[in-house]
């Protein structure tokens, strides 16, 4: 089988084609299994799965009581992955996350030695609940593990088992006594996912389901080894040149200091997205493509991934806030403004 990428024809190995079909089928089954205990939130599930297969971390922003913890634990169960929840509080220490060394007596030699006791970060999926509730030193300990995929203690490095996925939550309404993540640390998150209130029908269904006696068990869909193989597959998805150029155009248009930035960007943004946004847009496009059974990235994949990739990487200024303009509205206007025609990029630099 072959796929057309720009002006080229890229051959697809049969095993890769089968893997894409397998992932598309697994995607449907995971949504169905998680749907046994979670009502609605399909866009949240889809965006989390895109991040997982692109080897990224997510920041979930939503008010309390929207079943974020249940959602993550159910997703981990459907993927046969270990899950740990860390409740962030002002008195939480870095060692409470990463682990600590304790002095123990060897039962045979009677000699004392230090032994490292692993913390809750040693799991496949970590729920960092209310990450902005803990001081920067503790935040940094988790963010280091996210970036380096390892923990250092007593001069020894302990590698975290892959896949390793951190999902952090923030409460957007109560900011008293919190320690907001700086922009440089926010940039480490692959996606910023907005969790909204359920619809009328969904809320009725939630009441019926959660106050009854019937319980549903989430079954395993994917094994750990299969997830690692599918993460590797994402990197092999081909991308046409005009997609790279469109992503560069979209990302660079968020920077007010760029010469060709739109006027509304200069008026509404004080800071734009860096190169990591471009990288994540491409990876998100690849993961979204194979989740939909395609072996190539489309403009639509990029546009559908733009909000969760960019909303925490662009900073609206006071003028925008006074007009009720948030990051999502800026991204929407950028998508409608930046041309997406392949022919426009054919002769571009």
Features:
14 helices, single chain, Rossmann fold, 349 residues, alpha/beta
What can you tell me about this protein's structure?
It is a single chain. This protein is of the alpha/beta class. It folds into two domains: 13-236, P-loop containing nucleotide triphosphate hydrolases (Rossmann fold, 3-Layer(aba) Sandwich), CATH 3.40.50.300; 238-349, Helicase, Ruva Protein, domain 3. The chain has 14 helices and 13 strands. It has helices at residues 14-34, 42-53, 68-78, 94-98, 136-148, 183-186, 200-210, 224-235, 241-252, 263-268, 275-291, 299-310, 318-322, 327-337, and strands at 2-5, 8-11, 58-61, 83-87, 99-105, 112-118, 125-129, 150-153, 156-159, 165-170, 191-194, 269-271, 315-316. The two termini are 31 Å apart. The relative contact order is 0.15. The model has no long low-confidence stretch (mean pLDDT 85).
Map the helices and strands.
Elements: E1 2-5, E2 8-11, H1 14-34, H2 42-53, E3 58-61, H3 68-78, E4 83-87, H4 94-98, E5 99-105, E6 112-118, E7 125-129, H5 136-148, E8 150-153, E9 156-159, E10 165-170, H6 183-186, E11 191-194, H7 200-210, H8 224-235, H9 241-252, H10 263-268, E12 269-271, H11 275-291, H12 299-310, E13 315-316, H13 318-322, H14 327-337
Parallel strand pairs: 3-10, 3-11, 4-7, 7-10
Antiparallel strand pairs: 1-2, 5-6, 8-9, 12-13
Helix pairs in contact: 2-11, 9-11, 11-12, 12-14
């Amino acid at each position: 089988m072959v796929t057309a990428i720009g002006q080229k024809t890229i051959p697809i190995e049969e095993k890769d084609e089968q893997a894409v079909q397998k992932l598309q089928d697994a995607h449907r089954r995971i949504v169905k299994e998680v749907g046994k205990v979670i009502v609605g939130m399909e866009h949240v599930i889809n965006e989390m799965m895109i991040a997982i297969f692109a080897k990224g971390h997510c920041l979930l922003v939503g008010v309390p009581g929207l079943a974020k913890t249940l959602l993550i634990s159910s997703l981990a169960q459907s993927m046969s992955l270990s899950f740990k929840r860390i409740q962030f509080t002002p008195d939480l220490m870095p060692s409470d996350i990463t682990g600590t060394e304790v002095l123990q007596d060897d039962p045979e030699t009677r000699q004392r030695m230090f032994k490292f006791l692993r913390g809750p970060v040693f799991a496949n999926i970590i729920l960092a609940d209310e990450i902005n509730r803990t001081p920067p030193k503790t935040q940094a300990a988790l963010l280091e593990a996210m970036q380096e995929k390892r923990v250092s203690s007593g001069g020894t490095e302990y590698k975290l088992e892959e896949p390793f996925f951190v999902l952090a939550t923030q409460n957007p309404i109560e900011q008293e006594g919190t320690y907001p993540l700086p922009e440089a640390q926010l940039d480490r998150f692959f996606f910023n996912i907005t969790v909204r209130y359920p619809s009328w029908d969904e809320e009725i269904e939630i009441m019926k389901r959660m106050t009854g006696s019937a319980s549903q068990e989430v079954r395993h869909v994917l094994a750990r080894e299969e997830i690692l193989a599918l993460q590797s597959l994402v990197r092999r998805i081909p991308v046409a040149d005009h997609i790279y150029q469109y992503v560069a155009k979209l990302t660079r248009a968020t920077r007010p200091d760029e010469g060709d930035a739109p006027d509304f960007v200069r008026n509404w943004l004080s800071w734009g997205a860096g190169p990591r946004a471009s990288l994540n847009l491409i990876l998100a496009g690849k993961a979204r493509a194979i989740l939909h059974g395609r072996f190539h990235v489309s403009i639509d994949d990029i546009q559908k991934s733009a909000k969760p990739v960019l909303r925490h990487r662009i900073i609206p200024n006071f003028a925008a806030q006074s007009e009720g303009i948030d990051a999502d509205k800026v991204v929407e206007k950028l998508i409608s403004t930046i041309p997406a025609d392949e022919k426009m990029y054919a002769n571009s630099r």
